[in-house]
Every structure is written in C-alpha cells, then in structure tokens.
Write a structure and sequence with these properties.
Helix content is about 20%, strand content about 25%. By secondary structure, it is of the alpha+beta class. A hairpin with a 6-residue loop joins strand 1 and strand 2. The chain starts with a helix and ends in a 6-residue tail after the last strand. Bound molecules: succinic acid. The site of succinic acid (SIN) has 9 residues, from strand 17.
C-alpha cells in the first residue's frame, strides 16, 4: 500500500516544527518547569508558540540553570509581548526594560527596588490603568535562607468562592493604590494625596484563556467602591484570606540561574523574609498589559 504524499509531508513538517517541550509541574496549584531550553540562544517560533501555550496552562513558567545577559532576558521577554520601560531610573540595568530588585547597597543606597524583607501578596502595577501582563525575575544572587517568592492561583481562588460571595462581588470595582509602606494599614481610610491609584473590577477575565480570576490583593487593594467602609473591609478580608490558602500556592525557593515568569492577570505573589546580612539580586522585566475587564 502506498502512503499518500500529503500524509508523509504533514508528518515530517509537524516534527520539524518542534518536538514537544519537556515540562514538569511545580505544584498541584500552578506552575510548570520547562526543561532543556537554553535562553542564551534565540528560540525558533515553534518553541515560542509552545512556551506561550505552556504559560497559559501553567500560569508561571520556570527555567533553571540559565546564564543570561540582559539582552538574552529582553529577547525572552519579547516572546510574550512588548517589555515595559522602567520608570525609576535609579534601579535600572543598562537596558531600559530592565529593573533590579535588590537589597545590595552602594554608598548606603539600595541599587534596586523592593530591597528588604517580606512582602505581602500583590499583583504588579494594579494601581495603574493598564497593569503589566507579566513579570519575570532572573536570579543572580540569592540568600541561603528565605527570600522565597510565593505564587497564588487567582483562577482557583475565584472558582472556589461560595456562590453567595460571587454574587456579592459581581460587577464591583475596588481601588488599588501604590503605597507599599502604608496601603494595607490605610485600608478603608483616606489615601494620602498623590498616591498612584486606580479602580479595577474585583473579577477579571483573562484575554487569552477566557477564564475569570479574583483580582484583589492584601498589599494594594484599599476599598470596594460604593460599599460602606465596614462592609468593604469585611468582604476584602474574607477575599484575602480565601485567596492566600496554601492549596492555591506554589512557593519558589530560588537558585542562581533561575528565570521565572508569572502572569499578573491570574496570579498574585508575595515574598518571605530574609536576612539583611545576605545579598539578593534579581533582574526584573515586565511586559505591557491591557486594562482589566
Ligand atoms: C516583586 O514583587 O516583583 C518582587 C518579588 C520578589 O522579590 O521575590
């Protein structure tokens, strides 16, 4: 029996497109590790397409043992969308998209942003109109203990809410504000003048997957609009406690050479404490996003 030419061609072309990526789940809740991909070389389009699919499925992607110059990291970021230029020039690398996250000090001043210790759960840039779609960190120096980053699955957080709570938050918006020092303690009170802030829906739909995610966080969500303060506080605290349950979380213990990218539209993240006597240096890039809907 002769095999039709088209069948042979179709088989060969799919194989030459790219073999399936080897992956391994990071936790039951979210996260995929991508194995055997070296980001110091440009990636073929077929591999980029697979990485995007894996990212939508896993919400966060981890690649270990990378050795990346700034340009390599920018090229990887561009596979997922246009990188955002960093605003605070004091904390940047040489490339305008690169920002340093570090507790290392030069002349007494941190060389990077978000320098010290623990951070509560948040999503990046939720206080602006179009928050970053994605953020990625590349680990250059890590402390021996702590400084872990925790990621929570915001789809699961939404999907597991009781129907009555889903009804209470449907169609509502909340104010998110950038004031890391004070925002969570100012909840329900008047925000300081000039603090960057923006109102977004409590539930947003991911533009690529169509899934709904709970879009509030303990660090930056201040108040639910059009609700008395006591009711807003009560509902927000309930949502924060719900979304931070261990069953929705993957905790990442960093190793030098890790690059980890997360989707801010369907995850939130936090950082555990670490000693100020140890150095932590991460190179961060964010990818432009859209207005949450
Ligand atoms: C961040 O919130 O972007 C930083 C997280 C970290 O330093 O682990």
């Amino acid at each position: 029996m002769t095999i039709p030419r088209q069948a042979i061609f179709a088989d060969c072309s799919s194989k030459s497109a790219a073999p399936p990526l080897a992956t391994r789940p990071l936790s039951a809740a979210l996260g995929l590790e991508i194995l055997d991909v070296d980001l110091s070389d440009p990636l073929p389009p077929a591999v980029i397409a697979q990485l995007r699919e894996a990212w939508y499925e896993g919400l966060i992607l981890l690649l270990r043992d990378q050795n990346l110059a700034e340009e390599d990291q920018v090229r990887f970021a561009e596979c997922f969308g246009p990188p955002a230029k960093t605003i605070n020039v004091n904390n940047t690398g040489r490339h305008p998209a690169v920002m340093l996250i570090s507790n290392i000090r030069k002349d007494g001043k941190p060389i990077g942003a978000l320098p010290d210790g623990e951070m509560q759960f948040h999503t990046d840039q939720c206080y602006i109109e179009k928050p970053a779609a994605a953020s990625m960190l590349y680990a250059i120096e890590v402390p021996s203990v702590g400084g872990n980053t925790l990621f929570a699955n915001a789809y699961l957080a939404y999907e597991t809410l009781p129907a009555e709570i889903k009804r209470r938050i449907e169609g509502r918006k909340a104010v998110n504000a950038y004031d890391y020092e004070n925002a969570s303690t100012l909840r329900g009170t008047r925000l300081r003048e000039g603090v960057p802030q923006y109102s977004h829906p409590l539930v947003r739909t991911h533009p690529a997957t169509g899934r709904k995610a709970l879009y509030v966080n303990r660090l930056m969500t201040i108040a639910i609009e059009d609700l008395p303060q006591a009711q807003s506080d009560e509902l927000l605290n309930l949502l924060f406690d719900h979304q931070e349950q261990r069953r929705f979380i993957y905790e990442h213990f960093w190793r030098v050479g890790d690059i980890l990218m997360w989707d801010n539209r369907c995850t939130l993240h936090a950082r555990t404490d670490f000693s100020s006597a140890e150095r932590r240096l991460m190179r961060r890039i964010t990818i432009l996003g859209e207005k949450p809907e």
